[in-house]
Write a structure and sequence with these properties.
The complex is a heterodimer of chains A (856) and B (134).
Chain A: E1 6-14, H1 21-30, H2 59-63, H3 66-69, H4 74-89, E2 103-108, H5 116-124, H6 135-142, H7 150-154, H8 158-167, E3 173-176, H9 180-195, E4 201-209, H10 213-221, H11 226-231, E5 239-248, H12 249-254, E6 261-270, H13 277-288, E7 298-300, H14 307-316, E8 324-326, H15 328-332, H16 339-354, E9 358-362, E10 368-375, E11 380-383, E12 386-389, H17 395-404, H18 411-416, E13 433-442, E14 445-446, H19 448-457, E15 462-464, E16 477-479, H20 486-492, H21 502-517, H22 523-527, E17 533-537, H23 545-548, H24 551-554, H25 560-566, H26 580-589, E18 595-598, H27 604-617, E19 623-631, H28 635-643, E20 672-681, H29 682-687, E21 694-703, H30 716-729, E22 739-740, H31 747-761, E23 770-771, H32 774-777, H33 782-798, E24 800-801, E25 824-825, E26 830-836, E27 841-848
Parallel strand pairs in A: 2-3, 2-4, 7-8, 7-9, 17-18, 17-19, 22-23, 22-26
Antiparallel strand pairs in A: 1-5, 1-6, 4-5, 6-10, 9-10, 11-12, 13-14, 13-20, 13-21, 15-16, 19-20, 21-27, 24-25, 26-27
Chain B: H1 3-18, H2 39-53, H3 61-69, E1 76-77, E2 80-81, H4 83-92, H5 110-113, H6 116-133
Antiparallel strand pairs in B: 1-2
The chains are: A alpha/beta (856), B mainly alpha (134).
């Protein structure tokens, strides 16, 4: 069955060529160029000397709410403004035209782009007299000089969370990071949420800030500017936000919306690190489906000035001699995480004004590449709620007419349209998905057998921080991965030999174990798996203060940071892009399917597993490696969380400091680690005789749309997340036999979660075990959702529920059975696992005991 | 600096953080309930007050104050403040709504009690302590 067409009905742009879509469009048509010498910093010393800045942007005029705006970094303000403009353009108010719960929100954010003056106290007051970074000085002198709101500007999921708050969007969601391909991922995820019936409308897009000194440093260090050195040409780094409002065509027609275009085709793939002609050519061909190349009127080119992309794309487009070319990136700059939605928005406006199909290419840095096909929607006039259609164009549009107005004479022709063999067959029955490999490094054990033994024994993994001298911080305890052999990991993965970011090494260790456990460690086995998807969750970037503290003595005047950092080209990067782990895993193991990097903070791990599950269930791939890694046990990470007062300060006995559901709980304890699961379709697992731990039965997500720092007090978001997962699994609430709680040990979370569990499961909530892994591991942030998914699979496989430790004083607000007196046998057949993130993103997974024959 | 001057300066800080109008901010305004402050806003406010008045406000300032008033005594029991701690909290925060300070009150609820006048008095005390110290 062909899914109902998805249409674009609103576009919102904040962009170097203008702060509205119409202004950008008319200036694009005029041929304006936004690139120029930067005003905010001195670009001498960089290989690229121009950038494209957003100008005359006044978010307060558009959004009001000065209180919330002050928490936002530029990228968030761009995102929120672009989202508001897209909704306004679509003439949509969430809550009036569509239910908040059925509105999806998928977005991409870029490398954390913070302005130097905001972090300068951290640089100035963290060093000893010789300019050498000292964690104790940092804790005592620097931290109290930065506003606590700084943390919200660095967390990668915040721009999207702010949109949910401003627009009251509560439905399915995720945030991806950091390059262009992840912006495409957001568009595709939104489209799928409509076609699968998870949402009735979707806001999709991205935001990025690259017209800043620190961003330039990162781009230079990431090699993005290399083409300037070899050819004198390259990209123009830009900034801005781009969002599109998507609806099912029937919904758009029913409310008489202006339809820019139908999102009629797409193709996405992972290419070699440099991009490749074959990938581009295949994608453009696949995106077209059965539209002839000659029918394409316009190509929204992906070229950004870098000759490499130019040559590859030109070769791939040899079959489109007559199509007009548009080069938005050469005019308004490369917007990176916002590039793909900006390209699509331009394409939608062109299709609407010129009437012909357009191919939108989004080939860029990072390995995910995508091409979209936009076709014109027939213009309609509303007459008494009925739709009169002009001559239709494009296949998907025709199919929709069949559904709506059966007497239209085109019907026979439509039925004769041949099936395109390349489109994967969507099976009638959803495919079953099973867990066949596990890998984890955690504060309570390295390797899942040790992890599981210690969990069952109720051993805490938290203690005094030993990774650095944390004595100057307000909090000096955490859950560290003990005796982690990073030397060995660097040897196994040579591409990571200079890697400084600890979460990447932890993630590689966990991913390696999961593949080994699944019997996929040998190259011969992996050869069969070229289309394996990789879904990785991470939270925020590590920023190596020690690289810049020598400037504490010499000053931070314009250009000083760049001169210092770029003097030695072999110096490791100040920032590690968040997709680095997915890239290392994918390239090393040879996985060239989807490569998604989910940065939805504490929900990222659960979302990565959930989205991999959907990808397999929908028949888009057979096997996926899904999980997450995180470590913010470094001065800046721990310092940031202490600024937010989310951590417990009672640390007399570190092992009992994390006290989920206990009346005396007063904050969580940070942990770290990596956890990965191998997921595959049941048929695939059986055909290769894989060991099956559990079956994945359901996934759901939601947004609190409340506040960035506090959970919604009624637990609305948590309830919706659990209900979405239940609906996805087809199970009734009474079929849930165990809850693996988010259970962080903060006063608010545990009470709200308890309330939400009771709301969803009713009286049944009191009859089943509810346990908190974090009581032992601490909060592994992005990795926690993956570690808890792994725990849920083991709970079903080993038939035991791990305990919640440190629960000694009952709290009247937390009145469920939390398994506080030690592990116990478990004969149930399902486990529901919750993950709730800072910013209000929620995710729930449901696992079942695998049985041959019927699902549980 | 007298209380009126402190209040006027504080009003500006609160306006900048919470985005409310000056005239909405009175001595009796409860920051959370009346002025819409969230937990992050209280932290930010505390930071900006320190910066504006060149004083230092401790984390859990009022909890610590109560604890010093009941040396050796128990502050919390089963997640709620003990009767002794509640009595001392009433003395430490005479400006707040006493009807909320009943058995079952938790320390996490303290920030939700705070009024503008609590901060005026706190700032004055810190400024005086600063003077004495120097």
């Amino acid at each position: 069955m062909t899914p109902e067409p998805v249409v674009v009905t609103g576009v919102g742009l904040v962009n170097p060529l203008g702060n509205s879509a119409s202004e950008v469009f008319s200036r694009l048509r005029r041929g304006d160029l936004a690139g120029k010498r930067p005003e905010r910093f001195d670009s001498t010393g960089f290989s690229c000397h121009v950038c494209a800045q957003v100008e005359g942007f006044d978010p307060e005029a558009l959004l009001g709410d000065a209180k919330t705006l002050r928490l936002m970094n530029h990228d968030a303000a761009y995102a929120v403004a672009a989202a508001r403009l897209a909704l306004r353009d679509a003439n949509v108010l969430i809550g009036r035209d569509y239910p908040p719960e059925q509105t999806a929100l998928y977005g991409a954010t870029g490398l954390a782009g913070i302005a130097i003056q905001e972090v300068s106290p951290l640089i100035r007051y963290s060093a000893d007299d010789n300019g050498v970074f000292d964690a104790r000085i940092f804790g005592r002198a620097a931290l109290n000089k930065v506003r606590p709101t700084l943390s919200f500007k660095i967390l990668s999921n915040m721009p999207i969370c702010f949109i949910s708050i401003f627009e009251n969007i509560q439905g399915p969601n995720a945030v991806y990071n950091p390059w262009e391909g992840q912006g495409s991922e957001a568009i595709l995820a939104g489209m799928r949420s409509l076609q699968s019936g998870k949402a009735k409308c979707a806001l999709v897009g991205g935001c990025d800030v690259k017209a800043h000194e620190l961003a330039f440093v990162s781009l230079q260090q990431q090699g993005i500017f290399r083409s300037f050195e070899t050819s004198g040409k390259g990209c123009i780094p830009g900034e801005g936000g781009a969002f599109l409002f998507l609806e099912l065509e029937s919904g758009a027609r029913a409310r008489g919306a202006k339809i820019y275009a139908c999102l009629s085709g797409f193709a996405s793939a992972t290419s070699l690190p440099t991009g490749s002609f074959d990938t581009f050519r295949t994608l453009t061909a696949k995106a077209l489906e059965n539209v002839a190349e000659s029918a394409v009127q316009t190509i929204i080119s992906s070229q950004d000035g870098n000759p490499l992309f130019e040559n590859l794309e030109e070769a791939a487009l040899a079959n489109f001699p007559t199509a007009n070319r548009v080069f938005p990136k050469k005019q308004f700059g490369n917007l990176f995480a916002a590039a793909s939605p900006a390209q699509l928005a331009v394409g939608a406006m062109i299709v609407y004004s010129d009437g012909g199909p357009a191919l939108v290419n989004s080939f860029g840095y990072g390995s995910q590449q995508t091409a979209f096909l936009l076709t014109p929607a027939e213009r309609s006039t509303q007459i008494n709620g009925n739709t009169t259609n002009a001559e239709p164009l494009g296949r998907t549009t025709l199919v929709n007419i069949v559904q709506e107005i059966p007497e239209v004479p085109e019907v026979p022709e439509v039925l004769e349209v041949p099936e395109v063999p390349d489109v994967p067959e969507v099976p009638n029955m959803p495919r079953r998905v099973v867990v066949t490999g596990l890998g984890i490094v955690s504060p309570v054990g390295k390797g899942f057998p040790e992890f599981w033994r210690n969990l069952l024994a109720g051993r805490s993994g938290t203690g005094r921080i030993s990774l650095f001298d944390a004595s100057g911080l307000l909090v000096s305890i955490g859950g560290e991965v003990k005796n982690f052999d990073s030397v060995k990991i660097r040897k196994i993965f040579p591409a990571a030999k200079a890697e400084r970011d600890r979460k990447i090494l932890l993630g590689l260790a966990a991913a390696g174990e999961a593949l080994l456990d699944a019997g996929l460690d040998s190259p011969a086995e992996r050869m069969k798996l070229a289309h394996t998807a990789v879904h990785v969750g991470v939270s925020l970037e590590v920023f190596f203060l020690e690289d810049v503290t020598p400037l504490a003595r010499t000053g931070l005047e314009k250009g000083a940071i760049a001169r210092h950092l770029l003097a030695d080209p072999t110096r490791p990067s100040l920032q590690t892009p968040l997709d680095r782990l997915a890239e290392l895993i994918g390239d090393y193991f040879g996985f060239f399917g989807t490569r998604s990097t989910n940065c939805s903070a504490c929900a990222a791990g659960a979302m990565a597993v959930g989205e991999a599950f959907w990808e397999i269930r929908d028949g888009r791939c057979d096997l996926a490696l899904a999980g997450a890694a995180d470590s913010i046990l470094n001065p800046l990470g721990m310092g940031g969380f202490t600024l937010l007062r989310a951590l417990t300060m009672t640390a007399d006995d570190p092992k009992s400091a994390c006290r989920p559901f206990d009346a005396s709980r007063d904050g969580t304890v940070l942990g770290e680690g990596g956890a990965f699961l191998v997921l595959e379709s049941l048929d695939h697992a059986i055909s290769r005789r894989a060991k099956i731990y559990a079956e994945v039965l359901g996934y759901g997500s939601s947004l609190d749309a409340f506040r960035v720092s506090d959970p919604e007090p009624s637990g609305r978001g948590a309830v919706l997340s659990m209900r979405n997962a239940l609906a996805d699994s087809g199970l009734s609430p009474s079929a849930i036999d165990c809850v693996n709680a988010h259970g962080t040990g903060t006063p608010k979370n545990d009470a709200v979660e308890t309330h939400a569990i009771k709301e969803v499961l009713g009286a049944h909530a009191r009859e089943i075990p509810v346990h908190a892994v974090k009581s032992m591991t601490g909060h592994m942030i992005a990795a926690s959702g993956a570690a808890e998914a792994l725990t849920a699979a083991l709970t079903l496989y080993a038939r035991k529920v791990p305990p919640t430790i440190n629960l000694t004083t009952p709290d009247p607000d937390c009145d469920l059975d939390y398994v506080s007196s030690g592990a116990r046998p478990f004969n149930g057949s399902t486990v529901l696992s919750n993950s709730f993130a800072f910013g209000g993103q929620n995710a729930t997974l449901i696992f079942g005991r695998y049985k041959q024959g019927d699902r549980p | 600096m007298n209380d009126q001057e402190i209040f006027q300066k504080l009003q500006c800080v609160i306006r900048n953080v919470l985005g409310v109008k000056l005239e909405q901010i009175t001595l009796n305004s409860i920051l959370v309930k009346d002025l819409g402050a969230e937990s992050i806003d209280l932290l930010d406010l505390s930071f900006l007050i320190e910066d504006e008045f060149k004083i230092s406000i401790e984390h859990n300032e009022f909890e610590k104050e109560v604890k010093t008033r009941i040396p050796g005594g128990e502050f919390e029991k089963e997640g709620s403040l003990t009767p002794a701690a509640l009595e001392e909290l009433k003395k430490a925060l005479p400006e707040v709504d006493r009807s909320r300070l009943v058995p079952g009150f938790r320390k996490a609820e303290i920030p939700s009690l705070l009024t503008v006048s609590v901060f005026v008095r706190l700032i004055r005390r810190k400024l005086e302590q600063g003077k004495q110290a120097s």
